[in-house]
Amino acid sequence: MRMFKIKMIFRNLIKYYRTISIDKKFLAVSYIQIFIPIILIGVLSFRISSDLIFKKYVGYTSDVIKTARLRIVDKINELNSITQDILYQTELYNVLDKSMKNVDYYDEVASLTNKFRKIILGHLDVQSIGVFTKEKKLCIVDNTSKKVGLDEIIPSQISFEKVYDIAAKGNGKPVWYVASLKKDKESKVVILVFRSINNPQTLKFEGILAVMINTELFDKTFSELVAEKSQAIAVVGDDIFISTKGEMNEKKILKFMSGVKNENGVVTYTSNEYIVNVLPIKQVNWYIVTSIPVKILFEDIDKLRMWLIILCFLSFVITSAMSLMLSMDFLKPINAIVEATKRIRKGEYKTIENLDRKDELGILIDNFNNMVIKINHLINSIYKEQITRKEAELKVLQTQLNPHFLFNILESINWLAQLNGVSQISDVVIALSKLLEVNLKEEKFLTLEEEIKYITSYVSILKINFGEENLKLEVDVDRKALKLRIPKLLIQPLVENSIFHGIRPKGFGKIFLGGYIWNDKLTIIVKDDGVGITPEKLKGIRQDLEEDNEVFLEQEGRSYTRIGLLNVVKRLKLIYGKDASFSIESLPQRGTTIKIEIFMDALSKAVEESLQEFSDEGEEEDV
């Protein structure tokens, strides 16, 4: 049922398409050809551009955060090395030992403090250094950077218990800790590195080393790597945003980060609002995060979409204008032809005015005008022919001359010639009578035997001028071929050409006429031993015979020879078509040979069609 409905809809569309005008069809085809490619190209371009921009951003961001991770890891390793160098200082262990024994250690503290100051001044990333005893007492703190120091944080905001618990997790290795501290109703992020101090000889726990890191080092790292203002980047540790550049939805970022703890590479999250890239820093369990709004990232895509819409609109306007111009240009000559055909149906045979076109429509109009001119000519010719025919009928009625009257006169001349003993005149009269008898027959086809008799009579008359000995006719025809019917006077023009253009220039000669049945074909040969035809002239004759038009008969300067040959060739083509062939061969001073071949089936078929036409004409006259 569904397929039937689809077929019905399709048929209705085709039916509607056939009823609309050509200009609407032209517009519809133009729109389809223009808009389908534009829409397809636009959609594909938008999709491909979106994917390329997304991949480009992800690739660029991946490179940025990987570079940032390398720099941060280098800083971490550098700061870890600093803590290791501090543990190598003998003054550190002297201070801790005397502090536990309550012995004066002022000199050792001064010496160790100087070393701490050198480290802080030499490394701007170190903000403060402190040492705590195993009894959880502050032993020494240096804050040369003039910023918040460890003594202001521990133990006021971070207890000794918290510090010792964090350091114990490292088991002698550096432990990085991020804390968000509140001061004056504002939150401040601090980065601390804790490390247990174990006696190098006894390996017993003696205290805690604490180093406070300057968070500005991350801001400098981001400012050097991130160039796009719309992109936000941050370092997150212990669920606290250590350093952030740009605007970022921290709650959503923390949700994204919860799923990448076991990942090593860049992980990308895409939502309707943001595109987020997360890269873990395994050394300290931190993360580097980048975020950019989808709207900003695809701002260029939105511009592309707008340009595509504008392009489609402009294409619609331009295509409509061009299609209207072209349709009007095409429809004007077509409408002119339609109007002309309507006038012809009314009997007004008028040509179309010249539209000065050289294309196919111009050729069609020229041919149409030529057809109208020929129709007018034919109508006038038929009209004149009818008038001439009526005048001839009047003359015939006036003279009462008929074939019997003409034959009676020729018979009287023959009787007088025999009575007076002039046999030559008698022979000529008898031959002339036979010629007239054949010409006056209304039949279109004669037997080959009757055609040969006609040619024999024709040659006997010409012998009066040439002489009995100077003009010979030799006939060789199969008996079966004699009864075959061929078009009347088909061979006579060929014999006439042979006599007047082959033998007469020479003064004497012989004509050979042959008729044979071979390979289901009737072959007729007319051959003379006259002067022949030059190769150049023979080439021109063959070329004229191959032309399938009537212009040849209208051209001037053509010989009677070619007209006679063309008449025979055109009759063969009209009656038998491809079932008949005509060829001519000639050599100078050697003579000319003409051969006609007709299939036997075509001979009988043509005679039957002629008899049918004759019977139809008789029925029309009876009616």
Automatic annotation (TrEMBL):
Keywords: Kinase, Membrane, Phosphoprotein, Transferase, Transmembrane, Transmembrane helix. It holds the Pfam family HAMP. One of its GO terms (cellular component) is membrane. Residues 328-380 form the HAMP domain. InterPro entries: Bact_2-comp_sensor_kinase (IPR050640), HAMP_dom (IPR003660), HATPase_C_sf (IPR036890), HATPase_dom (IPR003594), Sig_transdc_His_kin_internal (IPR010559). SUPFAM superfamilies: ATPase domain of HSP90 chaperone/DNA topoisomerase II/histidine kinase, HAMP domain-like. Its main location: membrane. The chain crosses the membrane at residues 26-46, 306-326. The keyword Protease does not apply. It is found in: Membrane. One of its GO terms (molecular function) is phosphorelay sensor kinase activity. It comes from the Bacteria. This is Integral membrane sensor signal transduction histidine kinase. It comes from Caldicellulosiruptor obsidiansis (strain ATCC BAA-2073 / JCM 16842 / OB47).
